[in-house]
Amino acid sequence: MSDLSRLLKESWSIVEDRQDKVGGYFYARVFLSNPQLRDLFPVQMDVQRTRLLSAIVTAVQSIEDPDRFNEYLGSLGRDHRKFQVEPAHFDGVGDALVEALRIVAGDQWCSEYDQAWRDAYQAMAERMMAGAEADSGNPPLCHAEVLRHERRSRDIAVFTCRPLQPLPYRAGQYVSVECEYQPRVWRTYSIANAPSDGGELDFHVRALGAGWVSGALVRRIKPGDMIRLAAPMGTMTLDRKSTRDIVCVAGGTGLAPIKALIQELIKYNRTRWVHLFFGARNRDDLYDLDELNRLAAQHPWLSVVPACSEDDGYTGEQGNICDVVTRYGPWREHDFFVSGPAAMVKTTLRGLTELQVPSVRVKYDPYTR
Ligand SMILES: NC(=O)C1=CN([C@@H]2O[C@H](COP(=O)(O)OP(=O)(O)OC[C@H]3O[C@@H](n4cnc5c(N)ncnc54)[C@H](O)[C@@H]3O)[C@@H](O)[C@H]2O)C=CC1
């Protein structure tokens, strides 16, 4: 581990338990020096704070893997164009971050940590600005009209929209979404279909407790409404050069990007077996199973194994989807795509390590919806 990475991890561990405080100080300081930025952010900042901190943690964890680091921060820079962020805004933000960390860490902070975070922030800001610059030929966000909206269960909806201008993306990527019912509150969702000539985009959304955007996308939006989408992000895409068979592991609406990958494979795949494991709590939450079974009937290379983790009456596979995948192994020669709740992704990655699947063959995205 490099010195920089060690110092970042060591200092982060001091404030980790109080990271909401770091987020609070950080934004207070940023808005004090740049009051005009306040209008771009939602009134309620709690989720935004969590997302900032997740982004910092992801960046710090990937700092020793230049490809991942560059790709992640480049995407974040493209995505932040929706906030009309200018290069000048980056200047004071680094100071605000270091100050927030220093205040929360108190006596345990030292000048070495200060320098490490300044260096890391500089690298992060450069990658974000480069990502934004490379995307400057595209509009920072696009408007899209909702065409269809279908409630698939009490909490889950599948809807389709059409952007007013083309939105180039790759199957497996995700975008930030804002709707008129929750202005300035952006949440990321995966595009659930492969790019198509008509440019339509599908989304799968589950409304969860206080998830305002998800709630509005499930219960309020209707055909004719407009939503806004920012630049596509994410690396969970297909490697066309690989000839290995594929295992897809989807938990709940984490199925969305996997469905897009399968649709992409339908365009060209003749030789790779694709095993899809789709886990949900109960039968109602297997919200796309009919469509998946239809695809499997049409394409002999595709198999679908559904499983329920909290439905004793279900006659198919029982248990967390990670355990079901393990039961069907070994999978040493396969490429993996994993998507779903963070805890499910983590457990699946651990299970695959135990099955000796090399980590380079496992794709997943840091997901902070
Ligand atoms: N909507 C979208 O576009 C996307 C959503 N996601 C994420 O997918 C998740 C979907 O949530 P829900 O549909 O509510 O899923 P859920 O909470 O109902 O879980 C679905 C399945 O995942 C597994 N699972 C859940 N928690 C687990 C744990 N602690 N350990 C092991 N396995 C576990 C189980 O098999 C469970 O049946 C959200 O966290 C969302 O952030 C990920 C990618 C795209």
From TrEMBL:
Enzyme class, broadest EC rank: oxidoreductase
FAD-binding FR-type domain: residues covered: 139-239
Domain Globin per the UniProt entry, residue ranges: 1-133
Co-factor requirement: FAD; heme b
The UniProt record lists the keyword Metal-binding: yes
UniProt keyword RNA-binding, yes or no: no
SUPFAM superfamilies in alphabetical order: Ferredoxin reductase-like, C-terminal NADP-linked domain (SSF52343), Globin-like (SSF46458), Riboflavin synthase domain-like (SSF63380)
Reaction(s) this enzyme catalyzes, per UniProt: 2 nitric oxide + NADPH + 2 O2 = 2 nitrate + NADP(+) + H(+); 2 nitric oxide + NADH + 2 O2 = 2 nitrate + NAD(+) + H(+)
Keyword terms: 2Fe-2S, Heme, Iron, Iron-sulfur, Metal-binding, NAD, NADP, Oxygen transport, Transport
InterPro entries: Cbr1-like_FAD-bd_dom, FAD-bd_FR_type, Flavoprot_Pyr_Nucl_cyt_Rdtase, FNR_nucleotide-bd, Globin, Globin-like_sf, Globin/Proto, MRET
EC number(s) per entry: 1.14.12.17
Family (UniProt): In the C-terminal section; belongs to the flavoprotein pyridine nucleotide cytochrome reductase family.
Name of the protein described by the UniProt record: nitric oxide dioxygenase
